[in-house]
Amino acid sequence: DGGITQSPKYLFRKEGQNVTLSCEQNLNHDAMYWYRQDPGQGLRLIYYSQIVNDFQKGDIAEGYSVSREKKESFPLTVTSAQKNPTAFYLCASSIARLRTNEKLFFGSGTQLSVL
Amino acid sequence: KNEVEQSPQNLTAQEGEFITINCSYSVGISALHWLQQHPGGGIVSLFMLSSGKKKHGRLIATINIQEKHSSLHITASHPRDSAVYICAVRKIQGAQKLVFGQGTRLTINP
């Protein structure tokens, strides 16, 4: 079955540590996205990528980094510069960037907590 | 003020009741999405609308572009409908970004 796989489901970060969240899709989608979800707030865009080897900052990119070396993979690194990393992180993908009515497909999320 | 507002924030109902969740937005949009987030955290896309009405099973979504308002209805609600329902809009400007509402937590009691 096609879909988006996020791992791990739960992740703990020590102070000063960088951690990487994995996102893999086998839907052959060009566009991929990372969102952060905090309690009582709407999802906020961290980074997005429209094509391999290209990515753009979203609304809250500070303290995060990404790479897009392969079409199917879009890992997110939460760096030590992100002072409030505890949140639920969701990865999503869509077919292409050029069509404005694209449906989004989401992974099952990673809960990141600080030790 | 948020660009996308949902109401109510929390809704509890009995099995079989007709459910309405509302979404109002303040920006020009090219499409509106209704999403369902299960207790485990995964999100499923229910509808994508740019005008009119769509129906899928017991779910109905409507949008009024002039009034900048959308509703999600659930007929004959069931405990398995318990989830967080999220409205998101794709703004005309900056079309790569969706703006999300804060979600409506729905609980259906048997």
Description:
- The complex is a heterodimer of chains A (115) and B (110).
- In chain A, 0% of the residues lie in helices and 48% in strands.
- With 115 residues, chain A is mainly beta.
- In chain A, strands 2, 4, 5, 6, 9, 10 and 11 form a 7-stranded mixed sheet that branches.
- The model of chain A has no long low-confidence stretch (mean pLDDT 91).
- Chain B has 110 residues and is mainly beta.
- Chain B contains no helices and 11 strands.
- In chain B, the strands form 2 sheets. In chain B, strands 2, 4, 5, 9, 10 and 11 form a 6-stranded mixed sheet that branches. A 5-stranded antiparallel sheet of chain B has the order 1-3-8-7-6, with no helix packed on it.
- In chain B, a hairpin with a 6-residue loop joins strand 9 and strand 10 (98-100).
- At the A-B interface, strand 5, strand 9 and strand 10 of A face strand 4, strand 5, strand 9 and strand 10 of B.
Average pLDDT taken over every residue of chain A = 91
Shape of chain A: globular
Number of DSSP-assigned strands of chain A? 11
The quaternary state of the protein chains shown equals heterodimer
Secondary-structure element order of chain A, as H and E?
Answer: EEEEEEEEEEE
Strand percentage of chain B lies at: over 45%
Question: How much strand of chain A?
Answer: over 45%
Overall geometry of chain B:
globular
Indicate the percent of residues in helices of chain A.
Answer: under 10%
Structural class of chain B: mainly beta
Q: What is the CA–CA distance across the termini of chain A?
A: 35 Å
Rg over alpha carbons of chain A: 13 Å
**Biggest interface, residues from each chain:** A-B, 26 and 26 residues
Total beta strands of chain B: 11
Run of helices and strands of chain B: EEEEEEEEEEE
Biggest sheet statistics of chain B: 6 strands, mixed
